[in-house]
Amino acid sequence: MSAANPQTDQQTHHRPGERPVSQTEAALLEQVCEALHEATPLQIQGGNSKHFLGRKTQGEVLDITAHQGVVSYDPTELVITVRAGTSMQQLETLLAEQGQILGCEPPHLGDNATVGGMVATGLSGPRRPWSGSVRDFVLGTKVITGHGKLLRFGGEVMKNVAGYDLSRLMAGSFGCLGILTEVSMKVLPKPRNEYHLSIPCNQAEALQKLSLWGQQPLPITAACHYQEQLYLRLEGGEASVKNFADSLQGQEIDPEFWTQLREQQLAFFQDSRPLWRLSLPANAPQLNLEGDSLIDWGGAQRWLKTDQPEAALREAAENAGGHATCYTPDITDQPLHPLQPLLIRYHQQLKAQLDPKGIFNPGRMYSDY
């Protein structure tokens, strides 16, 4: 099966053997070339569902939402290629019709979320520790670089590694390295059997259980501790799911819980205090921090609602082997965790290679990047 772009989009001339450059893609390229000529910063914008992440940027808006549609989709090969302005709802609806899902379970955080925004922010949902991150599912990309060129990296098959690392670098780059116009991703079959349950326990007990279970081949694909309950999603073969569920003797829950967790719709996220995300090793111990916490990713992602100072939070995260990111706007001038000097240099060198004039989302991640 191959799905065509739902929009009537005229094509420009292209070389034999290459996919045609669409009219909207050509318009984006033209806007970039004009910005390069005038040295005008560009503020890259999709559905704006994640605009609150990172630092505020200034510049001429470059909107990718008109560049949408499915380029190709072969369910038997578990690969789909879509334009960056395609809505996440459209993509996931199409996959669901074929009994398939995005393995990284990315959050939308709004009705207008786009595929480009998914890759640019690199955010993954509850399934991430068991299936992989957004970066792990990207096979190839088309990118407009800071040299005014439209380049293709990677491919559409898992064996093709040419340029693969550069495609993966786009995940989590917040648009600072180039403008995504097209993304090829691998997808997964929807699990055949699933069970959702909760068992009562405190946070320390939950972390202990998760550490023990993490060493065993169990059918867990999501694990969250919240309000003195350990929530689990079990997926896989019927026998393995049923046997493990029976051994836990938990209470069955509505599977919608995982969507509410992914989309930050649980009551925990409505608290008016600043929201921090601590990314830690899965076996990190319980942190002695003020405020209310929610554990996701089997212990590797800790959400914290607190008024505690930024320095204390980041020191605690670093001491535990991780980092802390602020999800509430205007709380700090540095929402992303500060980098060590060597990493800063690598970031700057990469930026200089791909965006030498620094026009793409300048300062979105760090003040000098």
From TrEMBL:
<keyword id="KW-0274">FAD</keyword>
<dbReference type="Pfam" id="PF01565">
    <property type="entry name" value="FAD_binding_4"/>
</dbReference>
<dbReference type="InterPro" id="IPR016164">
    <property type="entry name" value="FAD-linked_Oxase-like_C"/>
</dbReference>
<keyword id="KW-0285">Flavoprotein</keyword>
<dbReference type="InterPro" id="IPR006094">
    <property type="entry name" value="Oxid_FAD_bind_N"/>
</dbReference>
<feature type="region of interest" description="Disordered">
    <location>
        <begin position="1"/>
        <end position="21"/>
    </location>
</feature>
<protein>
    <submittedName>
        <fullName>Glycolate oxidase subunit GlcE</fullName>
        <ecNumber>1.1.99.14</ecNumber>
    </submittedName>
</protein>
<dbReference type="InterPro" id="IPR016169">
    <property type="entry name" value="FAD-bd_PCMH_sub2"/>
</dbReference>
<dbReference type="InterPro" id="IPR016166">
    <property type="entry name" value="FAD-bd_PCMH"/>
</dbReference>
<feature type="domain" description="FAD-binding PCMH-type">
    <location>
        <begin position="15"/>
        <end position="190"/>
    </location>
</feature>
<dbReference type="GO" id="GO:0071949">
    <property type="term" value="F:FAD binding"/>
</dbReference>
<dbReference type="GO" id="GO:0019154">
    <property type="term" value="F:glycolate dehydrogenase activity"/>
</dbReference>
<feature type="compositionally biased region" description="Polar residues">
    <location>
        <begin position="1"/>
        <end position="10"/>
    </location>
</feature>
<keyword id="KW-0560">Oxidoreductase</keyword>
<dbReference type="InterPro" id="IPR036318">
    <property type="entry name" value="FAD-bd_PCMH-like_sf"/>
</dbReference>
